[in-house]
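User: what does the whole thing look like in 3D?
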Amino acid sequence: MSAEFDQKIHNTLADANLQLAIYTATARLKEHRIQNVDPGVLPDYQELRTQANTIKKHAIENLDHYLEEFERNVVAHGGKVVYCKDGTEVSDFILALAKERNAHLIVKSKSMTTEEIDLNERLEHHGLESVETDLGEYILQLAHERPYHIVAPALHKTRYDVADIFTDRLKVPREVVIEKQTAIARGVLREKFLAADIGISGANFLVADSGAIVLVENEGNARLTTSAPKIHIAVAGIEKIIPRAQDLATFLKLLARSATGQSLSVYTSFLSGPRREGEIDGPDEFYVVLLDNGRTKLLPDRSKRQSLYCIRCGACLNTCPVYRKIGGHSFPWVYSGPIGAIITPQFMGAGHEPGLPFASSLCGACGEVCPVKIDIPKILLELRSDVKKSELREKQNRLERLAFRAFAWLMTHPRLYEMAGSMAAAVAPSDGRWIRTVPAPMNLGPVKAWLSQRDLPPPPAKSFRQMWRQR
Amino acid sequence: MSRDHILHRVRTAVGRSAGQPAADPPPVRIRIPSVDLESRIASMLARVEALAGKAYRSDDPRGFVESAIAGKTAVASNAPYLVECGITSLPGVRSGITDRAELRELCAKSDVGITCADYALADTGSLVMLSSPQEARMISLLPPAHIAVVPRERLLTGLDELFSILPRPAEQTSSMVLITGPSRTADIEQILVRGVHGPGQITVVVV
Amino acid sequence: MGKRVSLFVTCMVDQLFPKVGMAMARVIEELGYQVDFPEDQTCCGQPAFNSGYRGEARIVARYFLDTFESAECIVVPSGSCTAMIVHHFAELFHKEPETLARVHDLEKRVWEFSTFLTEVARVEDVGARMDDVVTFHDGCHALRELGVRDAPRRLLANVRGLELREMKPAEECCGFGGTFSVKFAELSGAMANTKIQAILGTGARTVVSLDPSCLMQIQGALSRAGSDIRTMHLAEVLVSR
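Assistant: Here's the predicted 3D structure for the full assembly of 919 residues, as C-alpha cells:
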C-alpha cells in the first residue's frame, strides 16, 4: 500500500475521539438497520433483496435500451437529457446554461455523484455561488472537507467543531447547542433556496418508463432545491436506471431501511419534467445529466459490473469492521467503505491505491447487508488477483511473488514441508508460553508485523503428523 | 456528441447492438396485503404518532382545523375537499392562490400549511401528495407546520397498492412526494433535530 | 455414508495447534468412525488465493484434489479452510472442465467439523464435560460462507457443566484475515482489541471457536494484554471429560 494510505490509517486509529465518533455513529445506524429488516418487521426482506438484484442485473445488462427509454420519456414530459462523459462536460453544460439564463446562485442537494466530479469547485472557479443545502454537506462545504460517509457526511464532526466552523465562516456568535446550530443553517439556507436561480440535485433512481428521477431525503432540502428555483438540473450516474416506477415498490422498501433503519425516509420525491400546465409551482426547466465518468469501464467485466448495482445506502460502511476503524477520509476517493474499496480501483485504476483491495479481512459482513446483493468479497478477491497480475507484468513486488511460489512448491512437496516445519520449530524460542519478543535477526517482515500487535503461539514440541504417527 | 459515444460504449460493454430490443424484465413484484379500513386507519394513526407527528380521526375537519390553527396564520391548498368542508373559509386561512411567486411569499410567512392528500400509506404512516392546480408543492414544504386532511377512502395499505393504482405517476404530475413524518436530521453527532428545512410539525387528520 | 473419515487438519493445526487435530480425531473415533490421516496433505492454498496469487493457489488446490481423491469423507477443523475448498476451488478451475468436475465432487465430501457432527454423524451430545464459563466466537468464514451458526451452539449446550454466554456485539470479525493481519497489522490489532472488549464483557474464562486462525489472533491479543482468558477449539472442548 502507499505510505499515504498507511499514514492516514495510523492517524485515524491514533485519534481516540474520532474512533469513538465513528464507532458510535455507525453502531447506531447498524443497529437501526438490523431492527428494521428483522423478519418480524419485514418478512420479505430476503426476497426483496433477490428481486432488487435481479432487476438491477437486468437493467445493467440492457442499459442502453433503458437509457434511451428514459430519455424519450424525459423529453415527452418537457425535460431534456444531457449525456456527459466526465466532470468537465457536466460543468461546461451547467456554466453555459447559467450564462444563458444569467444565473449566479445555485443551491445543491446531497449528491455523491457531484462530489465525484468536484462540481462545486468547478462552478465556483467560474464565479458561480453553489451552496450545499444538506446540513452535513453544508458544514463540510464551509470546512472545505470531503464527506466522511455516504449517508452521514459529517459523522466525524462534533458540535464543537461545528460551532468553530460556523463562527469562523458565518461570523455568527459561537453556538454549541445542536438544535440552535441547525436553526442557524436553516435560516441561512432558506434565503438561498428562495433566491437561487438553479437547483442541482443528484438522483437515487432514474425511472426509465417514466422519465422520472427519485430523490430520497430527510431534511426537505432536496424538495426545496428542486421546487423553488426555476431551473432544476439532476446529475446522475448512468447506472442509476431502473426499468419501471413499479420497481420502486421493491427498492424503496430496501433503501431507507438499509441506510438508517427508517421504513421510508421523510421525503421521497418522484419528479418528472418541469411543472405541468396548471401546476402552481415547480421549475420551468428540467434537465437530467447522465454521467459516465468511468462507469462504462466497469461494465464489460461480467462479475465486477455488479458494483454498479449500488443504491448508495451505506449499509456496508456501517457494518464493516475496517471502515469503523479507519473512517471515510482514509480512503483515497470520495466513496469509502466496502463499496468504495471495490469501485475505486475500477474507476481510478489499480495503481491509484494498490493496497486498497487488501485492506479487508474478508469477513463478508458487507455482502450480507447489501440490499442489492453485490458480492463485495468476491470482487475484492478478483481485484487482488488483478493487482498481482499487474505487478507480474510490471515486475514489481518480486520478493513477495517469490515467497508465494516457494509456498506453492513447499505445499506440493510434503516431506520438504514437514522438514521446513521442524526447522522453524527448532529455531523459535519456546518455554510453552506465547511469545512476546524474538531475537533481532528474526524480528523481520511478517514476524515483526505480527509481534507489533500481539503475541505469537509457541511452536509445539511435535507437529500433528508427528503425534499421529506415534499414537 | 457524448450521447452517441456513451451509448456506444455501453452497448459494446454489454454486448448489445443499437435498436436491439431488451430482454424481458423480471416480473414486477407487487404484493398487496388485505387489510380492512379500520385497521388501516389505526395503523396510519399509530405510525404517524411513532414518527413524532400528530394523528387524529375527525368527523368535523373544519372544527378540528379551526382550533388547531387558532391564533396562527395559515395557507391552504386549493383542494376541492378543503373548500367543500369549509376549511378554506376559516378566519386566518388564505387560499385560492394560483400565482407561483405570490404563493411562495405567503408560504414563507405563514405558520401553517394546510393540504389535502391524494393518498396515504397506512403501513408507513405516509402522505402521498401529487403536485396539481389544486395542490402546490410549497404549502407542505415552507411553513413550519403542516396539517394534512386525509379522506379515509384514500388510505391505502402501502407502497405496493400505491404503485398498483398509480403505475405511471409521471403521466399525472411533475411531482409526487411521499411524506413520512416531520423533517429531520441527525447530521451532527447523530442527535435528532426536527424541522430542518421542511415542516417540523406534522398533523394528519383522517376524515 | 460409510464409517471412514479422513482428516484434513490444515497446515496451521499441523504446525501450531496439533492438539486440536488430536482432539478432533478422538471425538470422531469415539462416535464409531475409522479415522485416517492422508500423510501427503499440506495446505488448502488459501494464503495464496487471498493474496491474489491464483496461479500458486491453483497448484496447491490441484495437489489437494489428488491427495484426497479417494477420501470418502473429509473433516476439517477450520471454517476458513473448508470455505476455501467448497467455495473457491471452483473459481480456480473454471477453465478446466474435467478438474472442475472433480472439484464439484470434492465439495460434497468435505465437512467443517461442527457441521460434520450435527449433519453427518447426527449427534449433538458427545458426552463431554467441562466446568467453565465460555463465550463463542463466530469465525466469519464459517458464519457467512458456510452458514454455520447453530451447530456449534447446540454441541456446546450439551457439554455438562458448561455455561455459554454470547458476546455483544456479536458476529464481528476478530481481525485476522490471513495476510491482512500482517499487511495491516495496526488495524488488525485494533480489531482484535475490540473483540477482546466484547469478550471481557461476557465475563467468560474461555473463548471457543471453530477456526484456529481466529483463535491465534484472539489468544495472541489476550496474551499481549496480560489476560489469563484462554482460547479453545470446539474439538478441544468436546473431548473434555
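In plain terms: Residues 113 and 146 of chain B are 5 Å apart (CA to CA). The mean pLDDT of chain B is 97.
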